[in-house]
Amino acid sequence: MEYDEDKVDEMTLALLFLVSWTEHHDIWRAWKGFDWDTMNRLHQKGFISNPKGKARSVVMTQEGIQRAKELFIKHFGK
């Protein structure tokens, strides 16, 4: 099935905000249990660290966490 990858990336980034937490007050991490192609695109766009590896989470960049929060509020906020 064909789909709009940018829309999928937006929704995944918004959901990464839902499953994120902070470490040491300035490092945001998120569980990486999403589609690998999507996670790779988010990495290429500069929103998350490289999703490859054994860790079950990724580090979100400052730009990534800011955009993720905006998208989460847009799509899921009341």
- Portion of residues in beta strands equals 15-25%
Any idea what the radius of gyration is?
Answer: 12 Å
The separation of the N and C termini measures 31 Å
The total number of structural domains is 1
Note the total helix count: 3
Unreliable stretches covering 5 or more consecutive residues? none
Oligomerization state: single chain
**Element-level helix/strand string:** HEEHEH
CATH superfamily: Winged helix-like DNA-binding domain superfamily/Winged helix DNA-binding domain
Helix vs. strand class: alpha+beta
Largest sheet: 3 strands, antiparallel
In helices, the fraction of residues equals: 40-55%
How would you write the strand order of the largest sheet?
A: 1-2-3
Name the CATH architecture.
Answer: Orthogonal Bundle
What is the arithmetic mean of pLDDT? 95
CATH topology: Arc Repressor Mutant, subunit A
* Shape summary: globular
